[in-house]
């Protein structure tokens, strides 16, 4: 009996630019040869069946989309690990789809692709060139570069301008270290004096 593969999804939306209005869809089935794969993409549905050589299992999937896509403008990229797709949404709309599937019922095999997901109100912050590059490469992480710079900027904003060596704890530690060094230096002459006293005592005993 055919198993249902895990499906990951994320999306972008735009009311003016069709190239930024799409669904990321990944069918997680490894080692599916092209000769053992069937994929039928229609405006309102997707049908997939395939056989994994490494797992020695047959897989089958049927999806009915929440809204229409444009199959002619969509991309499919079978890899050795999975099948990656970028599905172009047919309707230009600023709002995200509320869900991937037509039916609101939750299904166990469908999960959010957090590597590619961004919130609806944050997607415009991702540089356009990054989005374009990831569309071509299929499998990049739009917004991650921007997120990294934001995180770096946040750290700089929190800690910038603060000299940790001048903080109370750091200064105290340095002062203690200096005092300990001074104590060590002061002890050295005392040890030398003790040694000289010991030698003098030995000479007196020899004379006696």
UniProtKB/TrEMBL annotation:
Residues 119-139, 151-208 are annotated as: Disordered. Residues 119-131, 175-196 have a biased composition (Acidic residues). Residues 2-101 form the CS domain. Residues 151-160 have a biased composition (Gly residues). Pfam families: CS. GO terms for molecular function: Hsp90 protein binding; protein-folding chaperone binding. Coiled coil: none annotated. GO terms for cellular component: cytosol; nucleus. One of its GO terms (biological process) is chaperone-mediated protein complex assembly. Belongs to the p23/wos2 family. This is Protein wos2. It comes from Lachnellula hyalina.
């Amino acid at each position: 009996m055919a198993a249902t593969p895990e499906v990951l999804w994320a999306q972008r939306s735009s009311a003016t630019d069709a190239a930024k209005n799409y669904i990321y869809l990944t069918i997680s089935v490894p080692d599916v040869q092209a000769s053992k794969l069937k994929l039928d993409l229609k405006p309102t549905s997707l049908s997939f069946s395939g056989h994994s050589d490494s797992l020695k299992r047959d897989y089958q999937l049927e999806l009915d989309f929440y809204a229409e896509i444009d199959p002619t403008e969509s991309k499919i990229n079978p890899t050795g690990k999975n099948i990656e797709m970028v599905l172009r949404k047919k309707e230009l709309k600023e709002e995200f789809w509320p869900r991937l599937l037509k039916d609101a019922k939750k299904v166990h095999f469908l999960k959010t692709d957090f590597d590619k997901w961004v919130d609806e109100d944050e997607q415009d912050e991702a540089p356009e060139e990054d989005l374009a590059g990831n569309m071509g490469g299929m499998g990049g992480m739009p917004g991650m570069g921007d997120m990294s710079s934001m995180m770096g900027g946040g750290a700089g904003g929190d800690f910038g301008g603060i000299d940790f060596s001048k903080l109370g704890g750091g200064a105290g530690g340095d002062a203690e270290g200096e005092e300990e060094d001074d104590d060590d230096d002061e002890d050295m002459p005392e040890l030398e004096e003790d040694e000289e006293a010991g030698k003098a005592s030995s000479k007196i005993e020899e004379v006696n």
